[in-house]
Amino acid sequence: MSENQNKWYVLRAISGKEAKVKEYIEAEIKNTSLGEYVSQVLIPTEKVAQVRNGKRIIKERSYLPGYILVEANLVGEVAHQLRSTPNVIGFLGGMDNPTPLRQSEINRILGTVDELQEAADNIDIPYLVGDTVKVTSGPFSGFSGDIEGIDKDKKKLKVMVKIFGRKTPLELDFMQVEKE
């Protein structure tokens, strides 16, 4: 079997069960002759950082929920074996004759996934300009103010706090404030 007969196909799975389907197919590849025809099984995921309760949490979530990419040579019963995997709905593009993805689509999907994993430092910023926040740590703990600006690169907020009757600008870290 030559390598260029393998093409990328999209399996539709029950959303949230992608990891179980991948695990099952990989076990089948090791234990049966499916390994001769299936070379890769991928779940497109991205890493997302969020700020919760003042702590930075990095989560991995599915970039295309409900879809699994499979690089395979669909000859004989291979398509049927993949389709009959538990939690699999079927192939994207038709049950009888699955349509392979074009190379440009694969490059875009895999490129986007790589790009998203490299950009794992991007944080979902739960604050907007104009929001009222309360300072939770530092010398101004307990004071409230309005957000005047957000610096995503430095992960800082410019907050206008009223101290002794005057508005004073503070530059605070995302972790030093919470929404009111």
UniProtKB/TrEMBL annotation:
Domain NusG-like N-terminal intervals: 5-113
Top-rank taxon: Bacteria
CDD domains, sorted: KOW_NusG, NGN_Bact_1
GO biological process, one term: transcription antitermination
Cellular component GO terms, alphabetical: cytosol
Residue intervals of the KOW domain: 126-153
Any single Pfam family the record assigns to this protein: KOW
Keywords from the named record: Transcription, Transcription antitermination, Transcription regulation, Transcription termination
Keyword check for Transcription regulation: yes
Family per similarity comment: Belongs to the NusG family.
Job description of the protein: Participates in transcription elongation, termination and antitermination.
Descriptive protein name: Transcription termination/antitermination protein NusG
Species this protein is from: Bacteroides coprosuis DSM 18011
Lineage: Bacteria, Pseudomonadati, Bacteroidota, Bacteroidia, Bacteroidales
